[in-house]
Design goal:
- The complex is a heterodimer of chains A (165) and B (680).
- Chain A is mainly beta.
- Chain A has two helices and nine strands; from the N terminus they run E-E-E-E-E-E-E-H-E-H-E.
- In chain A, strand 4 and strand 5 form a beta hairpin.
- Chain B is of the alpha+beta class and 680 residues long.
- In chain B, the strands form nine sheets. Chain B has an eight-stranded antiparallel β-barrel with strand order 2-3-4-5-7-8-9-10.
- In chain B, strand 7 and strand 8 form a beta hairpin.
- In chain B, helix 9 packs antiparallel against helix 11, helix 11 crosses helix 12 and helix 14 packs antiparallel against helix 15.
- In chain B, 44% of the residues are buried.
- Classes of the chains: A mainly beta (165), B alpha+beta (680).
- At the A-B interface, helix 1 of A face strand 19 and helix 4 of B.
């Protein structure tokens, strides 16, 4: 499985959102399930972890805010996308949560900005994935589906050049 | 809310909470029609007293009451949806108007059945301006500082949001909820934990049981807060830790180490955390999680992330582009309040859905609003969903809707073809004339493991399905005269939720005595099941079948008789299996001649605009062919299928649709011939 970030289209501008596309691809020779971004992913509150960060030089200029509380909704079977060999999907696409860190970030200065995203699915057990409410209905199916999720720790970056005035 | 005013006079608002009793039944009445932020609703709870005990009976709500403001009184009327019965009730509330300086007057609630016959009258004395009152007990651990208040004028705030001092109590007061501090605030010494200042859920729950002086394992309007040091997980600001036990949502905590500070921004964030966690105790979900409730709630703008609510996270705030998102944008626009849907839940949600110790977190936390369904963006799905139906239906007429899923892409789009609600991948919300919205639930949902995929392209740009949605486990969906609004959601493989535009459907009142009788016969006991199943021999539906026969005997030329023929004809065509009392299987053979006669009448009645819809008509012609085959006339059956597209050609259906119909007819013919050959 690979993780890829790229600037969606056009070019970045100071004070405007930077559209970033996230792509997860199954590069293996068998189908696997790969989770999309769900509530709690962005802060590492629960698996899958999708941890975003934006740097300008060595300075972190955007990162997720704090968790108000540990309340996370149920993980559903459809949150674990079945990827055939060679298939790809956007884990922030419809049906999943966007990455607020990327979606709300607007560069305040010109220069290179590094967008970084870490995907971690290496939870020691299913409990790290499940919701704190409403999980009962799909618990067994989700736990079974989690067996098809490969344990990965991947980091992708893309450097976006923000032109000056 | 429909409102009429005879003359303006200076009088105090009548909104608020009232209480009365009659014949052992006690009523809490919440009138929300005027005052600061009226929601145009009336709701109440009924309790019944037997002996020395009082138990909760049920809740009710009027979503769209009529409000008449007269010089002497205010009269509020409407249809109540009750938690304890599917039958709606009529309520009429009269409140004498009083001058602002005078004490509030008592309200009179007249409770009537659906026909308007009074069942009970309650004289309800004024109790409070708040719609609900909650006792709030707060303790803190040594070294922590409970939040007091925040001046919203300390930092820039949105225009239109007045600067005021907000505490937890006053923030809920603005929502119409009275929070009364209760019990002595204890300071809990942390000597036992030594250097371990972290708390986990089990410890918090134990602390609640030990320190919450009002604690009881039962539903009560009371909640406990512990200001603790820090959570087991760094950074967590608060928690409603009592999410899933038998009497949940009674306790919350705030973690001082994560929220501490005295700056205005920190104080503002503290206020948000306290109100947010208490919101969870009232069974409010995070703004982006509402679709995960049972039943699912509508999401606000941009998947809920655009909600300006206490229940959103400031840093996750994302209004639709190009508006900026993030924490600064949230605070610049947040007026320190709940969304209208959240307010409806807090003020008028059914008691078990809101009260602490009631339903589990996320269960019953819903007021479904079909308009809000639409805010869920599906722009990237390349699909469009449409609901279609005649503009109006006669009372009793089976409401069949057509679902059309089209491609919006220039290239081929692969998607599943499960458009019928019984497959669980399409949901239909129905708003009835009283304003109440319910999700239509199919009578017999199917478990769909693998949905067949279809490719939408130039040759086949759309998929079609028709669904009878007039009856489900909750009874008849359209049993009142009036205008309904329907909206459907198609869940695509990638989780996209493609939402249809709203379809208004009117149910007409009967015009003649015959209309009235036919409506009665079509809405008799068991008729819904018979229509849903397209006939049945089940003994339990004997009365329903008899009503169909009576309809055909008495009103053979009535326009709705076509549905009796449809049900009877399809059932005649099938071989019906039944289990006998001795657990043996019995077969009732098909009655092909009767089937052909009844179903051909359906086709004749449906050649114009009347009769059944096109998809049902297609199905009827296939049943005719099968009946002819069962009667041994294969050539006739084949000819029937050859001629299947003709009525649709006459109706002028689109060429692309006609091509699909022709192809399906050829496939059906091949299948039929293969079946005949296989069975000899």
């Amino acid at each position: 499985v690979t993780l890829d970030l790229r600037l969606t289209a056009g070019r970045a501008r100071v004070g405007e959102p930077v559209p970033i596309t996230v792509t997860v691809t199954n590069t293996g020779d068998r189908p696997v399930r790969v989770p999309g971004v769900v509530g709690g992913s962005e802060t590492g509150l629960r698996y899958p972890h999708y941890l975003p960060l934006v740097r300008a030089g060595d300075t972190v200029v955007a990162r997720p805010g704090p968790d108000e509380d540990p309340m996370v909704g149920p993980l559903r079977e459809r949150d674990l996308v079945l990827l055939e060999p060679g298939a790809a999907f956007d884990p922030t696409g419809p049906g999943f949560q966007p990455l607020a860190t990327f979606a709300t970030f607007r560069p305040q200065t010109s220069g290179d900005h590094t967008f970084e995203l870490t995907l971690d699915t290496s939870a020691p057990g299913p409990e790290g994935w499940l919701g704190t409410f409403g999980q009962d209905t799909e618990r067994d199916a989700v736990v079974a589906a989690l067996r098809s999720v490969p344990a990965v720790g991947l980091t992708a970056t893309v450097v976006v050049s923000v032109p000056g005035g | 809310m429909t409102r009429s005013t005879s003359e303006p006079i200076d009088a105090r608002p009548v909104s608020g909470r009232y209480r009365g009793a009659s014949g052992g039944v006690q009523v809490e009445l919440r009138l929300d029609v005027d005052g600061a932020r009226p929601l145009g609703r009336v709701s109440g709870d009924h309790h019944v007293t037997t002996g020395a005990t009082t138990r909760f009976l049920g809740s009710w709500i009027v979503d769209a009451p009529t409000v008449g403001v007269r010089a002497a009184d205010v009269v509020v009327e409407g249809t109540a949806i009750c938690s304890w019965t599917a039958a709606p009730a009529r309520v009429r509330i009269t409140v004498p108007r009083t001058a602002p300086a005078e004490p509030p007057a008592a309200a009179t609630l007249v409770w009537s059945d659906a026909a308007g016959v009074p069942q009970a009258t309650y004289a309800c004395g004024w109790e409070a301006a708040a719609f609900r009152t909650v006792l709030w007990e707060q303790d803190s651990v040594t070294g922590t500082v409970p939040f007091a208040s925040y001046d919203t004028g300390s930092l820039p705030q949105p225009p239109g949001s007045a600067a005021r001092t907000l505490s937890v109590v006053s923030a809920f007061a603005e929502a119409g909820i009275e929070v009364l501090t209760a019990g002595a605030p204890n300071v809990i010494a942390n000597t036992l934990s030594g250097t371990d200042t972290r708390w986990d859920e089990a410890e918090l729950h134990a602390a609640m049981r030990a320190n919450f002086s009002l604690w009881i394992d039962a539903p009560r309007w009371q909640v406990y807060t512990l200001v603790a040091t820090r959570f087991r997980q760094d950074g967590t600001r608060g928690i409603m830790y009592d999410a899933a036990d038998a009497f949940p949502r009674q306790g919350m905590a705030v973690f001082h180490d994560a929220v501490q500070g005295t700056s205005a921004a920190v104080q503002r964030a503290q206020l948000r955390t306290y109100v947010h966690e208490l919101g969870h105790a009232f069974n409010l979900l995070h703004s982006w999680d509402k679709a995960l409730a049972s039943p699912p709630q509508p999401l606000g703008p941009n998947g809920g992330l655009g909600d300006l609510s206490w229940m959103n996270y400031a840093w996750k705030y994302q209004p639709p582009l190009p508006a900026p998102g993030g924490e600064a944008a949230y605070w610049a626009a947040f007026p320190f309040g709940f969304t209208p849907n959240e307010l409806v839940h807090l003020r008028h949600g059914f008691r078990p859905d809101v009260i602490m110790g009631g339903n589990r977190f996320g269960v019953g936390a819903a007021e479904v609003d079909p308009d809000v369904f639409a805010d869920r963006s599906a722009d990237r799905s390349d699909l469009a969903l449409e609901l279609r139906a005649p503009r109006s239906f006669a009372l009793g007429e089976p409401v069949v809707v057509e679902l059309k899923l089209s491609s919006m892409s220039r290239g081929p789009v692969r998607t599943h073809g499960r458009l019928h609600p019984r497959d669980g991948l399409v949901q239909i919300a129905v708003q009835d004339p009283s304003g109440r919205v319910r999700a239509y639930r199919p009578l017999m949902p199917l478990c769909v493991d693998a949905a067949p995929h279809q490719v939408l392209n130039d040759e086949r740009p759309a998929l079609y399905e028709s669904a009878y949605i007039g009856y489900g486990p909750d009874g008849f969906t359209f049993e009142q005269v009036g205008t309904y609004r329907l909206r459907a959601v198609y869940v695509a493989d990638d989780g996209s939720r493609v939402v249809s535009p709203t379809l208004p459907v009117r149910v007409r009142a009967p015009h003649t005595a015959a209309d009235d009788e036919v409506a009665e016969l079509l809405m008799a006991d068991g008729q819904g099941e018979l229509l849903y199943l397209l006939g049945s021999d089940a003994p339990v539906l004997f009365g329903a079948n008899a009503a169909m026969e009576e309809l055909l005997a008495k009103h053979p030329k009535h326009p709705l008789a076509v549905f009796a023929r449809l049900v009877t004809g399809v059932n005649d065509e099938r071989t019906f299996k039944m289990v006998k009392p001795d657990n043996e299987l019995a077969l009732r053979p098909a009655r092909p001649a009767e089937a052909v006669r009844n179903l051909k009448s359906v086709v004749t009645a449906s050649t114009g605009d009347a009769g059944v819809d096109n998809i049902t008509l297609n199905m009827v012609i296939r049943h005719i062919a099968r009946a002819e085959a069962k009667a041994g006339d294969i050539d006739k059956a084949a000819a029937t299928l050859d001629a299947l597209p003709a009525p649709f050609r006459k109706k002028g259906v689109k060429p692309q649709v006609l091509e699909v119909i022709e192809a399906e007819a050829r496939e059906e013919k091949a299948r039929l011939l293969a079946d005949v050959e296989a069975t000899g």
